[in-house]
Amino acid sequence: MSAVVASGLTDFLGDAVDLQVQVDAIGLGATFALMAVGIGLVFGVLRLVNFAYGQLIMAGGFALAYASERGWPVAVGIALCFGVVIGLSIAMERAVFRPLRTQSPAVMLIATFAVAFLLQSIALLWFGPLGKTAASLAQLNRPVSIGDVDIRKISIVAIVSAAVCLVLLVVLLNRTSIGLHMRASAMDFQTARLLGVRANLVSAAAVLISGVLAAVVAVMLTVQFPTVTPGFALRETIVVLAGVVVGGMTRLGSATLGGFAIGYASGVLGGALPTAQSQYLPSFVFGVVILVLLVRPGGLFTRGRPSVERV
Amino acid sequence: VTPRALLQLAAPAGLVLAATLLGATVSRSTEIYFINALVAVSIVVALYVFVGNSGVLSFGHVSFVAVGAWAAGVLSVPEQEKPAFMPYLFDFLRDTTVGNVPSLLAAGVVGGVFALLVGLPLMRLSGLAAGIATFAVLEITNNLLRYYEKIGPGLNTFSSVPETTDLTQAAIGAIVVIVAAFAYQRSRFGRQLRATREDPAAARAVGVSIYRQRLGAFALSGFLAGLAGGLYVHFLPINVDAVYLDLTFITLAMLVIGGATSLWGAVVGALAVSGLDSLLANAENGLDVLRWTIEVPAGTRIVVVSALMAIVLIVRPSGLTGGREFSLDPLWRRLRPS
To answer: Which of A115, A282, A293 minimises the CB distance to B139?
Structure first.
């Protein structure tokens, strides 16, 4: 018995340190980290958990699939994807987030829940349950051989673009005045407003940036999973949300780290576990989420005691 | 018990009875929608017992509905039919078959015990952490019920469960859940929990244990949700996807649209949204109103319900009833404007 376990463990470890699994897992972690930033940024400024984030990505995926079916060039498809996602996020901010800004976090969370289901059911009505396929992006999913490992191009693209986006975001937050306004609002919205920060501008900026990130993620996910269905990116969003809360929602850095960690962990576990066990992977991942929340309710990567929330 | 308090029970119960009587006059095929609405009332009121009284959001209650449905379903399928779609059951589940009422009780007990066990650690959390943790419970429960075939049909549909949830049973179930919710919110435990909702610090200062009050409400609401799950599985041949994200969304929507902080709101929300949903479902098949035939494409109803939910939240964040119990005072005030 113990020999079996031991050999299983060696297999598992062998698979887990396999370079290919590692690169794919880091790629997945990078994608999830971008989503975590998108969710964390809006939460920081508006104290709003955007459950509809996955549906933004889904809309971007449909834009790509639409362009691909028309035979439009890839660049046009990506431009359309950015246009659709950014337009939707701004509309969402205007129609839902802004009027609800003074409501309790619970009301806002349920409102984004409603928006999520609205977008998903519109997609279902429009494109049907089987969805559409974005075929023209498939070239990015081909592997390149480096040494004796095959690495999918998209993993590299994901890692590089996540790094670029994060650096740009840090520059924006630390070196521009709108970045300063956003950081101030994240710390204390009321006081920031008293000091002359324009609330609508800041919340629009945060939602806009998170929309740009959603578009980037939409491209990366659509390359890896070209079949876009109405439920596209829903699972990923749930996992990332869990990761963000586990990492610590209150700070952008810890939220990003949490998103990356949960993406990396599911990448490694999914790549290394045999199928018979990986069907219980969600249970395992969410079990860990509950455990972390119990031990550190404020988040894994935060310091100090969190204040009690009245939700 | 004052007349005012009695009215707070009579109004929701009366609304449920009115819906039942209306359902008894319509055709067999329309009756389905009424039964569905009454089962929805049970689930939403069960959800209200915890969410409404504590103010803590729970995304996990559908997992109690699910285990209740599983318990009642597995226990009440006739023994000779079990191997057909549940070949891997544990021996004692395979060899035990009980009647309608015991299976409903079992559903409640399983839901309550599960909620108690889950709540023991989770009720320490509040705010977003609690929301995500209860969501994690839903994910884990769904994942286990989906693949663990020793306790149920896995991915198969619950066929050949005796369909005992007719209009009468659905109405009795809804009334039982409403009376339980009313009794709880009038008890000292319910009042203490509502105090923690309004002001946690002040409640603690007068000696209320937030953890214990929340845990008690969570277990009670788990019991009621399990019972509702039992009613559900005796009504329709469901599968694991019927008790997952969509049901979580629609029941939360019902609660919020009605007004999450009152029993009256929970019942009104459940009946209003179910009514609209059934109307739209009919319209998807073509609905005759006077001389016009209204026809809308399939899938419209989720669009309308979620749009409605967003609009209600923006225009009236405290719900249709304002989150207040039923009372005749506003009416009196309008009649005697002095």
So the answer is: A282
Q: How far is CA A88 from CA A79, A82, A120, in A?
A: 14, 10, 13
Which residue type is seen at B162? P
Give how far B138 is from chain A: nearest CA, Å.
9
pLDDT at A309: 42
State the pTM of this model.
0.88
**What is the rounded distance in angstroms from the CA atom of residue A47 to the CA atom of residue A179?**
17
pLDDT value at A58 more than 60: yes
Q: Which of A100, A125, A294 faces B121 most closely, judged by CB atoms?
A: A294
Give me the helix-helix angle, B300-315 and B263-284, nearest 10°.
150
Distance from CA of A225 to the nearest CA of B (A): 22
Q: What is the CA radius of gyration of chain B?
A: 20
Q: What gap in Å lies between CA B291 and CA B137, rounded to an integer?
A: 49
Q: DSSP string spanning B239-300?
A: -GGGGSHHHHHHHHHHHHHH-TT-HHHHHHHHHHHHHHHHHHHHHHT-EEETTEEE---TTH
How far does A80 lie from chain B, in Å, by closest CA? 24
Cβ distance B57 to A106 less than 8 Å, yes or no, reads yes
Whether A289 sits inside 8 A of B133 (CB atoms) is yes
B140 vs A249, A286, A294: nearest CB:
A286
Instruction: Kindly determine whether residue B303 and residue A125, on different chains, have CB atoms separated by under 8 Å.
Output: yes
B314 burial (CB, 10 Å; 0-12 / 13-18 / 19+) is middle
Task: Report the C-alpha gap between B303 and A220 in whole angstroms.
Answer: 28
**Residue A306 and residue A289: Cα distance in Å, rounded?**
17
**Tokens representing B180?**
């339980």
Rounded Cα distance between A264 and A260, Å, is 6
Per-residue pLDDT, B291: 60
Query: For the segment B151-209, what is each residue's pLDDT rounded down to a tens digit?
Result: 989 888 888 888 888 999 999 999 999 999 999 999 999 999 999 999 999 999 999 99
Neighbour count for residue B81 (Cβ, 10 Å) = 13
Mean pLDDT of A119-128: 88
pLDDT band at B130 (very low <50, low <70, confident <90, very high): confident
Structure-token pair, residue A76:
């046009």
Whether A124 sits inside 8 A of B126 (CB atoms) is no
Cβ atoms of B249 and A52 within 8 Å: the answer is no
Instruction: Give CA–CA dist A195/A187, Å, rounded.
Output: 13
Residue B12, pLDDT > 80, answer yes
- Quick one: closest CA in A to B124, which residue? A294
User: Mean pLDDT throughout B328-334?
Assistant: 81
What band does A103 get if pLDDT is binned at 50, 70 and 90? confident
Q: Cβ contacts of residue A208 below 8 Å, gap of 6+?
A: A86, A89, A90, A93
Map B5-71 to HEC letters: HHHHHHHHHHHHHHHHHHHHHCCHHHHHHHHHHHHHHHHHHHHHHHHHHHCCCCCCHHHHHHHHHHH
The amino acid present at A251, given as its one-letter code, is: R
Query: Which residue among B131, B249, B313 sits closest to A100, beta carbon to beta carbon?
Result: B313
What tens digit of pLDDT does each residue of A156-183 get?
888 888 899 889 988 998 899 998 998 8
